[in-house]
Amino acid sequence: MDFRHIDAFRALMLTRTTTKAAQVLGTSQSAVSRLVADLERSTRLTLFDRARGRLEPTAKAFALFEEVERRYAGLDNIREFALNLRNPDKAVIRVGSVVSFGLGFFARVMAGYRARHPSVQLALTTGASDLIRDQVVTHQLALGLVTNTIDVAATDAVSFAKLDAICALPSGHALARKKVIRLADLKGQPILSYEPTDMVRWGMDQLFADGNLHQQVVATARYSVNIGTMVKENVGIGLLHPVSAYDFLDSNLVLRRFEPSMPFHTLRITPRTAAPNTQLDDLVRVMESTLEDVMRAVEARMKR
Question: What is the SS3 string spanning 139-199?
Answer without folding.
Answer: CCCCEEEEECCCCCCCEEEEEEEEEECEEEECCCCHHHHCCEEEHHHHCCCCEEEECHHHH
